Each structure stands twice: as C-alpha cells, then as structure tokens.
Amino acid sequence: MEKAIEGIQVDKCSGCGKRFISPAYVCAACGSEEFAPDVISGEGKIYSHTTIRIAPEAFQAEAPYPMAIIELSHDLRLTARMQIEEGETMEIGKPVVCVGKNEAGYWFGLT
Ligand SMILES: [Zn+2]
Q: What band does 100 get if pLDDT is binned at 50, 70 and 90?
C-alpha cells in the first residue's frame, strides 16, 4: 500500500540558512537567534535502529517497540518511532518515509 508522506517541521536560520529540527534557539553555525519555520521532505533512510525494551514511563505499555535514527536531507538526523509491519525488518540504509506525528514524536515506516 502506498503510504502518505508527511513533511518534517524544521527551523531555518535567518542568518545562514542552516536547518534544524524544531525547535531551534541559537544557530550552532552562525550564532543567529532568528529562525523561520520550514518543512523538509519526510523521506530518509535508516542510519541506526534499535528496539526499546525498557521504555520511559509514558511509553511503558507500548514496549518493546522499534525506534530508528533517520537520516534526512540537509544533513539532519531525527530519532523516530518505527511502524514495522509483519514481515518487515529494519536495516541500516533502508529507505523510510515519515507517516505521522503524535505526542511521542515522528513515526516512520519502510517504503
Ligand atoms: Zn545560522
């Protein structure tokens, strides 16, 4: 099934244009404190992945659950929950897309 791809909200530095996963306060590249909201592609690939067995209190009922560090465009990385379907496996380098966002953060699925 084709997955609807969500964009990722970022803050773009008004000084140098560098993008940060929201929220950003001070640009690590140029020191500017001014940012404009921007949205980048929700397409990325798995940089690293793990299964959370000992979860923070708020998510204990959901453990164990898969998480991954996603490599996005603009040299950005994001830690996200993974929606893994029956028969799918996470592998470093595999393409993923953002499929949603909730209070836990972004959710990604394999393409
Ligand atoms: Zn900057």
A: very high
How far apart CA 100 and CA 3 sit, in angstroms, is 10
Q: How far is the CA of 46 from the centre of ligand 1 (A)?
A: 27
**What is the value of pTM for the model shown?**
0.89
Number of other CB atoms surrounding residue 5 within 10 Å: 14
Q: How far is the CA of 109 from the centre of ligand 1 (A)?
A: 31
Q: What is the predicted pLDDT for the residue at 2?
A: 65
Give the distance (Å) from ligand 1 centre to CA of residue 91.
33
Query: Encoding tokens for residue 38?
Result: 């921007």
Domain ranges of the chain: 41-110
Q: Which CATH code, of 3.40.50.300, 3.40.190.170, 3.30.70.270, 2.40.50.840, is assigned to 41-110?
A: 2.40.50.840
